[in-house]
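Chapter summary example.
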Amino acid sequence: MEPAPAVVTVPEAEAVAEEPRETVLEPVPALVPPAELPPLVAEEPTADHGPDPIEEIPVVPMVETEGPLDLDPPVVDEPEPAVAAPIPAIPPVYEPPAQPEFSWAEPAPPVRATPAWPDPTPSAPIPTVLVPAPAEAAEARRIVALLAPIAAFDVSVQAVEGVTVYAMASPTVAHETAVAVAGLALPLFTDRRPPWPVDQITLRGPETAVVLTPLGGPGDRGPVLAAAAPRGGALALLEILCRRAVADRARRPAVPAHDVISPGSPNLAPAAVSSRVEALTRSLTAFGDVTASVMRDAESEAVLYFFLPTGDDVPAVGAFAQDLHAVMRKAAGSGAVFRTAILRSGDTLLVIQPEEIGHGRSIVIVAGGSVTRPGLAYRQVERAAATLMSA
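The structure predicted for these 391 residues follows.
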């Protein structure tokens, strides 16, 4: 008989591990069939229908092609959008305007246009419009026809201090310009002041030129032709045509120089000639051989530089230059500015160009001689004036 195993008793406080517990499965309750539900009732459709059903995309079987694939996108001819024809606007019903009520007033007195040339200075003679006699009207028509190659001149016949003046003006120049300048320069023709018989005097300005041509003998107070035109290339032709206007008239006899030389001005006194002024004689080749002289005006403090042929009466030429300079100053006071005056007597050309140097002082360049190239003579005088002003 086997001995019984020894039983070891472990106190409960010293138990190390908890005895395993058996998992007790609770019994599953029996399935009970659900009670019958109440029948479903379709609800009223609402505004939100949810997403539209997706249409099935048919699947096209792939077909093998023999040639290469054309990968360019096909060109689709889109039809042009139809443009609706505009609906024509229905015009409003025409209503005839009411007839205006006219009030016939008494006719106003005629208004005379204001001339571009102001009234001449008080010292200048006032011209008077003449009703031309048949002979004067025929003479005016002849001169207008002679000047036709230049422009269609406006003509008037006026009396200035008893002298008949044929005033001609191109369309771009005020007609009063020719009349006023002729009135200011008339004593130069009638008082026998120039040192030579005067065939023509031309006043040249920046924009306008006036050509004065006596139609009678020197000092006989005969008619004078005054033509005003814009300064330009036609000025030389205008001077030629104005001198040609004298050809049909009785040509006045040549007057000896000693019969028309006026006494010199008492205000002019000789002055010394500097080497700089003497050197300018070599630059004035268009006038031929000239000699330099200087005179000073004691009244106006103007200095006159003369470049004239040897033997010319410098005081007489100086007095005439003073008179012509006074005409240019009066014309400037009336609104017409002239910078150069030219006296023509046969082949002799006398150029007078005054220059203001400030403080009431001025210089006057007087150059003369037998000139065949007037354009060159004008340019040489301008250069000589610039040299003297810079001194």
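To summarize the output: Residues 269 and 295 are 5 Å apart (CA to CA).
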